[in-house]
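Quick log. Single chain, no ligands specified.
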Amino acid sequence: MLGYSEEELLANRIDYFLHPEDHQSSESELQKMREGNRQAQFINRFITKEGQTLWLDWNNTVVYEEELIYSVAKNITEEKELEDLLERANKMARIGFWDVDVMKKTQYWSAVTKEIHEVSPDFTPTVEEGIQFYAPEAVQTITEIFNQCQKFGTPYDLELPIITAKGRKIWIRTQGQAEFRDGICKRVFGTIQDITDLKIAQLELKKSYEQKNAILESIGDAFLSVDKMGTITYWNQVAAQLFGGTKEERVGSSVWSLIPLTKENITVGKLREAIALGKVLHYEQYFQYLGKWLEISIYPSEIGLSVYLKDVTIRKTSEELIRQSNERFERVSEVTADAIWDWDVRADKLYWGSGFRQLFGITCDPKDITYHTWERRVHPDDLEKTLEVVENAIRDVHNTNIYNEYRFRREDGTYAFVTDRGMIIRDPMGSPLRLVGAISDITERKMYENSLRELNEKLEARARELAISNAELEQFAYVASHDLQEPLRMVSSFLSQLEIKYKNQLDEKANRYIHFAVDGAKRMRQIILDLLEFSRVGRMNDEVGEVSIQSVLEEVCTLQAELIESKQAAVFWGEMPVVLGSKTPLFQIFQNLISNAVKYRKEGVPPEVKISSIEFPTYWEFKVQDNGIGIEADSLDKIFVIFQRLHTKDQYAGTGIGLAIVKKLVENLGGKISVESTPGVGTVFSFTLRK
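-> predicted structure:
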């Protein structure tokens, strides 16, 4: 069968002859037999010596006592090839097979059947699972018919909807018949075919007929059809309402009976013309006896005429009202101070009121005015921007208003500054129908604005001069305070020497005077140093970069460690940001605020200083809060003024410059500083830094 000799067969393992795709399944069957399955039947493929593929149907018996498997194979290659050919044909026709083994209660689905149900190739359904694929409205029908087929052998041929495994609803044609042996049903088998496209076409055809009738009955127009003899063959409800008479009464009667034969009535002649010439006709006719205007459309065909009659009385009335409204519009445009315009977008017709002649001296033939007439009068430098505003306003279907400012050329060639306000009238789809508006001459206002602009430029120049003056004053303060230190240092030095050498030779009053002089010199020196620092604010050229506020606070606390420890103070903060700026001014700000918070403490209460930050979209806000003595409300506006002290030097040391320096530093960084305080409770300084 395979073309090998006995020696060749015995010299190789069985899997040497197996088809590569059947190795795993065959090994699985052998394993089942090793594990106790004495009888086994399966099908696999072998490769002949010539390289051909044979399909073999194996019946196997295991004799465990002899440790042997006895196998008999039947060559079913021809059957398999026929099955494959049939399967291919069925795939092309999209016909699948199914087979229910009633005795074993199992079901077989062919590959096409599985494709139709959109299940995986290894899916093996039960009978119940197969029925559950049918749409809910079809489950009872298929169940009853299948049971009758199984019980009585009644074959069936049905068209029913199913729901595939992927959730799609499709239509299938299923045929079934039963096989009985000795009066017992052994199997039920049949075919299944996807007929969704055919079913949809049938349903669409039926739907189209129903829709046609529904449309003719639901349209707002009267509709009737007549044959070439003038006999009415169709009559819808609107026609019945318009002329009177039901469909049953009118169908079969003559169309001429509907139309009075008067000399004003042209409809009879139009109907005869359409029948004779096969010509499509559209016209409007006022029917005196109906009291209505009708728009009539006649469409000839090989079998007669289709006639649509639309009641346009309201439209005709509206047109008359519009005519009257336009007349009033023209009267208004003649008396207003503005130049009224009306642009019909679709027809590109532009109406200009008499204001164009009064304001700009323009006289044009109304028939020649278009959108481009206006466009050519816009100043060339303003044209692109002005057209862009118009186009964007029209493009936005939700926009109904338009506003523009530009220069408009008068008839004498000069230009006027104008404002142009308009309203966009759109159809229900949002497309523009008309733009209506008015142009105002604002030349005088523009001249006034130009004079204001010139004044602002002069003020800005003056501000720059003041800035230069301020810078020179700061430089003067810096030089003056620096030069004052040398003579002050000499006075302080000689007073100190006088105190040391003659302390024991002078009385207590003299020593006190010397002490006052030395102390005054020291305070004067501190004031000069503070003045130097104040004058330096804004003059330092520190490199701008990312600054960690966490690091700044740590450095401040390290520098102020002796003061913090001596006052038993606690300084704490949460997570701090990294900001863009200069480190030195930020260090000075926090150093002054923290040292003040520690210095102005309540007697017997350890100072507590809390620093926090809040992020806003464009800036950071920092707060320095203490539990100190607080500040009276009437003093809050003084604390940032240079040399303003709220306490004597005996109570709290200082020169009154520290907070003035802080305010100047914060403002130079583009921020603002404020203070909130409750006497006896504490103070909160808040300042902002731009991101």
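Residues 55 and 80 are 7 Å apart (CA to CA).
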